[in-house]
Description:
By secondary structure, this protein is mainly beta. Helices cover 3% and strands 45% of the residues. The protein has one helix at 127-130; strands at residues 12-13, 19-20, 23-30, 37-44, 49-50, 53-54, 59-66, 68-72, 77-80, 85-88, 94-98, 104-111, 120-121, 134-135. The strands form four sheets. The protein has a six-stranded antiparallel sheet, with no helix packed on it. A four-stranded mixed sheet has the order 11-8-9-14, with no helix packed on it. The longest helix has 4 residues, at 127-130. Residues 53, 55, 59, 88, 94, 96 line the site of manganese (II) ion. Manganese (II) ion is lined by residues 53, 55, 59, 88, 94, 96.
Amino acid sequence: xxxxxxxxxxxxxxxxxxxxxxxxxxxxxxxxxxxxxxxxxxxxxxxxxxxxxxxxxxxxxxxxxxxxxxxxxxxxxxxxxxxxxxxxxxxxxxxxxxxxxxxxxxxxxxxxxxxxxxxxxxxxxxxxxxxxxxxxxx
Length: 138
Ligand code: MN
């Protein structure tokens, strides 16, 4: 059995060109063929978020702790709380990140497509886009 030890996988700072604010990434798995699985535990400081991006076969976000926000382009910003699972459809522009005043940690799970293509990145999320009111949690 192959156990990937945490001791050999230091936390990485997320790249500045794809994120706003301080974001930490802990790799969970980068699957090797025939697996297409990708999972990363991502910790956002308050106000930090991804840039706009899309995933070829979608993405699942599982909230570990804190309070976050997620938005599909053209829809309202939604608040995310611990235990929530957000389903991001394939090839859909969106962003995710922390609430303005709270840390936020999610497990991000996705797969590459049959051509091995992963996330497509676009422009950063403006403060105005980020600061829109969220829908009430029901
Ligand atoms: Mn995403």
